[in-house]
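Would you mind giving me a polypeptide sequence along with per-residue structure tokens?
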Amino acid sequence: MKKTIIVSLIIISIIIITIIIIQLNQNKYIENYQDKLLYPTKGLKKECAQEGYLPAYMPSSCIKKDGYYNSLRNCKCVDNDGYCTICYEEIEHEGLQGNNYGSPVQT
């Protein structure tokens, strides 16, 4: 009788410790969008659908169908062909000199 109570307490203790460890580890993976290089995708489907486009869930540069590109802007919405139609604001990187961005693609 005494042995089964001790075993039960040990099993319950292990379960409680496991649950606590899992909860503590999940806090590490919460995304924080304070960094200017990350953009939230929540609500993007509705925003792009209002304009008649699809959301660009995969990270990509702003490359439009007419040849315009800007590697300092990420794509927000794409058309049916996969070309970017709406871009996020330009990301300001430290150390970049000159204005080499926002020009047509050169072939």
